[in-house]
Design goal:
The chain has one domain. It has 145 residues and is mainly beta. It has one helix and 13 strands.
Length: 145
Amino acid sequence: MKIKINLESIFKNTIKDIVAITDKAKVCIDKVRYIEKNKSIIIPIRRKKIIAFKKKLFSSNKKPIYNSNTLIDSVITINNIDKYAIKNKCKGKLTEITILFGIQINGKEIYLSSAEEDKGVTLYEIIMKANEIDIELNDTDPIGG
């Protein structure tokens, strides 16, 4: 799978798709990189394969159904980053985290955080501000698990 999103304003359904694809994905935190020349953040992930969507009761929204046995190696590239902050409180504790609620987009802010906590404090998060939303997801595993 290859997805490229480049929008001045992002649509609600696009955000839901990004959340569904990245929810509960695993991030190897030692491999997250900022490339100053391109103003890009590279985030290698292992995500669950979406096999179907189930309609929610009393709603028009659909819930993704994942194949929990199949992890797909992918890379998320977020371009045009003006500012970013990586808060890593896992040093020496974890090398991989699980993204909680997928990658979130609110206006020009892009955010991800770990499900892992220590006494109620999130152990890992990335907060980014971008000129425009420019996100790429490329599967590096050609078979998809």
